[in-house]
Amino acid sequence: MSIVCPLIGTPIGVWVYGGLSGTGFDFLFLWLQKSGQDIFVSSFIAKVTGNFLDKIISCLIVYFIVNAMPNMYKPSKDNNIAV
Questions:
Q1: Beta carbons of 42 and 19 less than 8 angstroms apart
Q2: Which of 19, 35, 46, 77 is most solvent-facing, going by the fewest CB within 10 Å?
Q3: 32: how many CB neighbours lie within 10 A of its CB?
């Protein structure tokens, strides 16, 4: 997902917004532009980096929330219970 979505969104973002996305990763986009990268490559790398970090941070947040939950709210590990 971190690569597929930017593949779809990058051409749209380049065409509509000139490659900018309105996030903090626009600094990465602008830095890549100034270093000589193509507008599509700069926008794609910034979007992939943003999506990848977003997924990692989201997974860590969910992990810590689930671990902090009381055991009564977590599913039991007994697989012999009939539902």
A1: yes
A2: 77
A3: 19
User: In angstroms, rounded to a whole number, what is the distance separating the alpha carbons of residues 44 and 14?
Assistant: 9
Q: What is the C-alpha separation between 67 and 70, in angstroms, rounded? A: 8
pTM here?
Answer: 0.75
Segments of the chain scoring below 70 in pLDDT: 78-83
Structure tokens that stand for 5 in this block = 């979505």
What one-letter code names the amino acid at 25?
A: F
SS3 category, 20: coil
* Domain layout of the chain by residue ranges: 4-73
Using an 8 Å Cβ cutoff, are 77 and 50 in contact?
Answer: no
57 burial via Cβ count (<10 Å: 0-12, 13-18, 19+): exposed
Distance between CA 52 and CA 55 in Å, rounded? 5
Which pLDDT score is estimated for 33?
A: 95
